[in-house]
Amino acid sequence: MTTHQGSCHCGRVAFEVDGDIDSGLSCNCSMCQRKGSLLWFVPRAQLRVTAGEDALATYTFNRHVIRHRFCPTCGIHPFGEGTDPKGNAIAAINLRCLTDIELDTVPVHHYDGRSK
């Protein structure tokens, strides 16, 4: 399992996440479309915030089940937190915030969140 490094744009929030990236999810819901994030889902325990945990802001909308986490300084959304259908804690990592991957090599799956 690989450990990936990531951060917001200004570096106030930094994190590590363990796992092997097999794909990214592009969603067209009202939030993801505006953010332009490319998401990779992992168990929440595989995500460690290494800087700025106290600086992170949270936004929720609709059913308020996903905590969209972002840096209030630069506005970048490095990850979200929630639970999967089985009740397990998960993190939705914004692959665009990882510093050690080539996005062109990641297969992208499109999800129609707008219709859900």
TrEMBL record:
Lineage: Bacteria, Pseudomonadati, Pseudomonadota, Gammaproteobacteria, Lysobacterales
Domain CENP-V/GFA: 4-112
InterPro entries assigned to the protein according to its UniProt record, in alphabetical order: CENP-V-like (IPR052355), CENP-V/GFA (IPR006913), Mss4-like_sf (IPR011057)
UniProt protein name: GFA family protein
Coiled-coil intervals: none
Keyword annotations from UniProtKB, A to Z: Metal-binding, Zinc
Metal-binding found in the keyword field: yes
Superkingdom field: Bacteria
Family from the record: Belongs to the Gfa family.
Matches recorded under PROSITE patterns: CENP_V_GFA
Organism the protein comes from: Lysobacter yangpyeongensis
